[in-house]
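2024-03-11 09:14:02 INFO worker-7 job=invfold-0412 stage=load source=structure_tokens
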């Protein structure tokens, strides 16, 4: 018997007994304050959350946190005073020197600090992966406690974006009213 066959046979012999999933998984994780839980989980994975009350406060925070970083882009019109203009039609390689990218998310999930961002919110698909610093703005009222709630609400398969790049290890997350 080859070593491959031995390994597969060993794996087959050591399978756990099958169990039935509970019909309702929502009771497994309850967070009375999903935003606070999101911040806690985000902190645990290397991100930071900065609640802000409006765009004026957000602009001040970005100027403070990223002073000296010249190339800032955003898909958010309210941040036009901070950002480069007409960047969205440039070829993707031209974004290699983006210092800060600021985009919105559709919503966040407390249990894993996931943010749902579609391509329409990115401006260019490559932006969140190539920029030096990524800021994601999400409204504090659209945080869900667990992914399971989203499956039920939207009837969509869950896809989670895992950010493991060293560039994204300090991911600032901002929330406005």
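2024-03-11 09:14:09 INFO worker-7 stage=emit residues=177
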């Amino acid at each position: 018997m080859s070593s491959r066959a031995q390994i597969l046979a060993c794996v087959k012999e050591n399978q756990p007994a099958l169990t039935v999933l509970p019909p309702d998984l929502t009771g497994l994780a309850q967070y009375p304050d999903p935003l606070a839980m999101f911040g806690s989980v985000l902190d645990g994975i290397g991100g930071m959350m900065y609640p802000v009350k409006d765009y004026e406060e957000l602009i001040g925070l970005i100027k403070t946190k990223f002073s000296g970083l010249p190339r800032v882009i955003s898909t958010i019109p309210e941040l036009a005073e901070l950002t480069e203009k007409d960047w969205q039609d440039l070829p993707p390689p031209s974004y290699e020197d983006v210092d800060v990218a600021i985009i919105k998310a559709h919503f966040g999930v407390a249990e894993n600090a996931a943010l749902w961002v579609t391509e329409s919110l990115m401006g260019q698909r490559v932006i969140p992966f190539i920029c030096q610093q990524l800021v994601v703005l999400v409204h504090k009222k659209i945080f869900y406690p667990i992914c399971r709630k989203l499956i039920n609400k939207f009837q969509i398969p869950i896809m989670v974006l895992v950010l493991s790049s060293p560039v994204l290890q300090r991911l600032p997350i901002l929330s406005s009213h």
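2024-03-11 09:14:09 INFO worker-7 stage=report msg="DSSP finds six helices and eight strands in the chain."
2024-03-11 09:14:10 INFO worker-7 job finished
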